Amino acid sequence: MTPPVASAFTEQPLPSWRRAVLKVGSSLLAADGGGLSPRFALGLAQFVSANVQQGREVVIVSSGAVAAGRAILPRHVEADAALAARQALAALGQAQLIGLWQRFFERPVAQVLLTHDDLRNRRRYLNARATLNELLALGALPVVNENDTVSVDELKLGDNDNLAAIVAALVDADVLFIATDIDGLFTADPRRDPAAQPLNQVVELTDAVMAMAGGSGSAVGTGGMRTKLEAARRAGAAGIDTVLFNGRDGEVVRALAQGRLFGTRVHAGQNKLAARKYWLRNAPLADGAICVDAGAATALVSKGASLLPGGITAVSGGFRRGDMVEVHGSDGAVLAKGVSQYAAVDIARIAGHHTRDIHTVLGYHYGHSVIHRDDLVLL
């Protein structure tokens, strides 16, 4: 018999998932005397390992570099120190942070440092996605953090919650897990209002629900419940559910590994496919188009295939890798639009070639497809 969990939240099943992003904040990693502590990280690592053993994939978005750096800097730096000093702390603490996670796993842990600018720029976005997907395919555990040593606004805002939501969309995750230091979302801050009631599920993130979020509850963390709800809203726009739970409660974390949630589930409101296709249909087009032969047109329209270079007959315009372009049939009709993995100048060189020849022709390659089926919508 499964032992009961002492929680203000009632048990509910987790949404079905194959790939997830787990966001872990500084309040779960920082030691009381400075530096990092494995106290709560161990349980979260066991949650990750249990799911990986079941064939699932997890990307960790982890804060804690500044807290780690503060413990090893020769002189004490206050939490509200100047930005440059905090960036120095982050640089010192990154190795400590990755070392903390590596100690829990037999598989290799890969450090991935990103800024929001990396993810706003479409070409860098595609490069980041390709790298993370390759790391997962290799069996590594990606640990993502903001590149705090070079970012400015991001570090000042402490926006790793929203970074986690962006990463969840980046890797096409099914769910975003946010480990926090309280049990979930309440109607008010439970540490200040004893009448606050737990919210097991949030179907829609209305203004009233957003107003329930308080500020940061930790001296080492910079994000509060509001940034977590903002992250849930961002993830929901990509069709991804968000789960908020208490990462300090060992029983709650163990239950989570069994598919049992004691916390708040924020529903996306639409599925991932619908969200993705909506974005693809409405994203602005770059100048230019790709023309394909009858065989490629049939594969795209009837078989849901990716666009390969062998079926391309011509390319026009000066678009770049990551731009949204139209795909035309041999009669000039618009068949589809999608995100091109290659620039127009490169497509002109590989058009008509087999995928295995891409590297030989260009000297590099970004994958076998010119437009992947996940980045393409029929018109």
From TrEMBL:
It is found in: Cytoplasm. PROSITE patterns: GLUTAMATE_5_KINASE (PS00902), PUA (PS50890). This is Glutamate 5-kinase. InterPro entries: AceGlu_kinase-like_sf, Asp/Glu/Uridylate_kinase, G5K_ProB, Glu/AcGlu_kinase, Glu_5kinase, Glu_5kinase/COase_Synthase, Glutamate_5-kinase_CS, PUA. The keyword Nucleotide-binding applies. ATP binds at K23, T180, D181, T222, G223, G224, M225, R226, T227, K228. Its EC number is 2.7.2.11. One of its GO terms (cellular component) is cytosol. It is an enzyme of class 2 (transferase). Substrate binds at S63, D148, N160. Its main location: cytoplasm. Keywords: Amino-acid biosynthesis, ATP-binding, Cytoplasm, Kinase, Nucleotide-binding, Proline biosynthesis, Transferase. GO terms for biological process: L-proline biosynthetic process. Catalyzes the transfer of a phosphate group to glutamate to form L-glutamate 5-phosphate. PANTHER family: GLUTAMATE 5-KINASE, ISOPENTENYL PHOSPHATE KINASE. Pfam families: AA_kinase (PF00696), PUA (PF01472). Residues 288-371 form the PUA domain.
